[in-house]
Write a structure and sequence with these properties.
Number of strands: 12
Oligomer: single chain
Low-confidence stretches: 547-558
Radius of gyration: 29 Å
Strand order of the largest sheet: 5-4-3-2-1-12
Structural class: alpha/beta
Number of helices: 16
Strand content: 5-15%
Length: 558
């Protein structure tokens, strides 16, 4: 006997609770098992066999998750419309995953079979996450389930299959718990126990996956400076010179911990010099003072403005990382420009259209353009007498699987994530981002430094262990010796193949569900046509003045 179908109100309550529970698996609570509970609640809520109701259930789960998870967008935009629009759009995409979960249950070979259903739902979820990371406006991977697991044993799987594998296993565990709950309700203790054991194995088994952390091509002595921002939430350009001075002063404070020429590289964050030191003599003098005092190259973030090639009267900008050498200044051909500018934050798509809803679109007065090339900077290190390849991604780019991977595969021996979180107030945006940096450390087997203007910054070993962290809205410095590594993980070698395979499996399962739906509809129509005939036969007589079809047929046959 199949389990009873829950009431509609019950499904909505379960889905909302599931979304809220899943959000607690992310920073700042980081209760990672709650991701499994949240997915289990969603799957329990999806037991009604309705595509449209399934979408609504998924949408409600998405609102329960994204509204608190993306609260930082309210600080960034300055009014709720941005936060609400982003949360609603992401929740609507979760609704598509829920539709897929309903359909795959109808597929031949999956219908009424627990593990095929769980695996199909996991594949569908991964596929939708992959789409969400790429569309619309080049995607938004924030809230990927895998990023909730950086404190969990499951993070070890990042080195094998990146976010696709980790997210998929989260859904597998959640599915096992959901089916265990259904079996317990029906007092099927053996079946429930088997599901719980399998969930436990999937949860703790990844601890057995080894993670390399030892130096392979030497070590790099690095200083990282979090200079802080004078006025919280103020326009960055209005205080840009003071921000640069703060980072120069922080570099000077490093000399209280190290001797000049002791550090191989000093890291400043994104927007540490928003006024370009390559074109402004005052800012150049500030940066040079710091680099000359510490006697080490400084990798820093700046902005480059230039006329648009298509519209010369229009000014555009690039968000760049440059290297400033002591006694020399910038290295002209050593520049990385951000490849994934943030829509509605760094550039405004369809500006005229969105202006009808809010004038906040004009806060982005100069659109940022995307750079090209791989995220790799070969930084000359005098002590080592060679260029050390550094994989880089600016701010939100840490969320994109392929961008960081390209930098590593092309030779990056460590990863640096400069970021500016000053627009997000006291929210968890910075710690959510730091969790992504930690995930990347394990995924690629590289030391990672996330350095922010005002926090949270951190230095992470290749096995995901924190070596140092800072607090929000403080000036602070970190000094660490980082292992340089060249070994590629399985995830590096496989690239997007785990995501492609799982997405294809999910698509095939959904297609099977569509076929099953059509087959069921045909059968139901056939049964509906047969029911009136059966009723007339049972009555044994036809309406007055007419001969029963069966008898007439027999007479004609005779």
């Amino acid at each position: 006997m199949p389990p009873p179908v829950p009431a509609r109100v019950t499904t909505l309550v379960l889905s909302a609770a599931g979304g809220l529970a899943t959000e607690t698996a992310f920073p700042g609570k980081s209760w990672w098992p709650m991701a499994y509970v949240g997915i289990a609640l969603l799957l329990l809520a999806l037991r009604r066999d309705s595509v449209w109701w399934g979408w609504l259930v998924g949408f409600v789960w998405g609102l329960g998750f994204f509204l608190p998870h993306l609260w930082w967008a309210n600080y960034s935009v300055g009014e709720p419309i941005g936060w609400l629009a982003l949360s609603i759009a992401e929740a609507a995409i979760v609704g598509v995953a829920a539709v897929g979960a309903v359909l795959v249950r109808r597929a031949p070979g999956i219908r009424n079979r627990a593990w095929p259903e769980i695996m199909a739902v996991a594949a569908v979820w991964v596929g939708v996450e992959q789409v969400r990371a790429r569309w619309p406006f080049e995607g938004f991977p924030w809230g990927t389930l895998a990023f909730s697991q950086t404190d969990a044993p499951l993070v070890h799987l990042a080195s094998i299959g990146s976010t696709a594998l980790v997210s998929g296993v989260v859904v597998l565990i959640g599915g096992a718990l959901a089916h265990a709950a259904l079996r317990l309700r029906r007092l099927r203790i053996g079946g429930a126990s088997a599901m719980i054991v399998l969930a436990a194995v999937a949860t703790f088994g990844p601890w057995l996956v080894p993670l390399g952390a030892q130096p392979e091509t030497g070590t790099l002595r690095v200083g990282a400076v979090q200079g802080n921002v004078p006025v919280r939430g103020a326009d960055a350009t209005a205080q840009a010179r003071e921000v640069t001075k703060n980072h120069a002063d922080g570099t000077g404070r490093l000399l209280e911990r190290v001797e000049p020429d002791e550090l191989d590289l000093v890291l400043w964050p994104e927007s540490a010099a928003d006024i370009d030191p390559r074109t402004d003599a005052g800012v150049a003098a500030t940066v040079s003072r710091a680099a000359d005092a510490i006697q080490a190259p400084v990798l820093l973030g700046t902005q480059r403005y230039e006329p648009s090639q298509d519209t010369p009267d229009l000014t555009i900008r690039y968000n760049e990382l440059i290297v400033w050498q002591p006694g020399r200044g910038p290295i002209d051909d050593l520049v990385y420009a951000k490849q994934h500018p943030v829509p509605f934050g760094e550039y405004m798509p369809h500006r005229d259209f969105f202006r009808m809803f809010t004038e906040q679109v004009d806060r982005v007065s100069v659109d940022m353009m995307a750079g090209d090339g791989d995220g790799l900077m070969a930084v000359p290190i005098e002590r080592m007498q060679r260029d050390v390849p550094v994989a880089v991604g600016i701010c939100f780019e840490v969320a994109y699987d392929e961008l960081i991977r390209h930098g590593v595969v092309d030779g990056g021996e460590l990863i640096v994530i400069p970021t500016n979180n000053a627009s997000f107030g006291p929210s968890q945006e910075s710690t959510q981002q730091l969790a992504m940096s930690r995930f990347r450390a394990v995924e690629h087997g590289r030391a990672v430094v996330q350095i922010s203007t005002m926090g949270v910054s951190g230095v992470i070993a290749p096995n995901g262990v924190f070596q140092d962290t800072t607090e929000l809205w403080t000036a602070d410095e970190m000094v660490q010796t980082l292992p340089l590594r060249t070994t590629l993980t399985v995830a590096d070698r496989l690239g997007q193949w785990p995501a492609v395979v799982l997405t294809a499996m999910g698509a095939l399962a959904v297609l099977g569900g569509v076929v099953g739906t059509i087959d069921r509809a045909v059968r139901e129509r056939a049964a509906a046509r047969a029911r009136p005939m059966k009723g007339r036969t049972q009555k044994g007589r036809a309406p007055k003045g007419r001969t029963p079809r069966g008898r007439a047929g027999k007479e004609r046959h005779r």
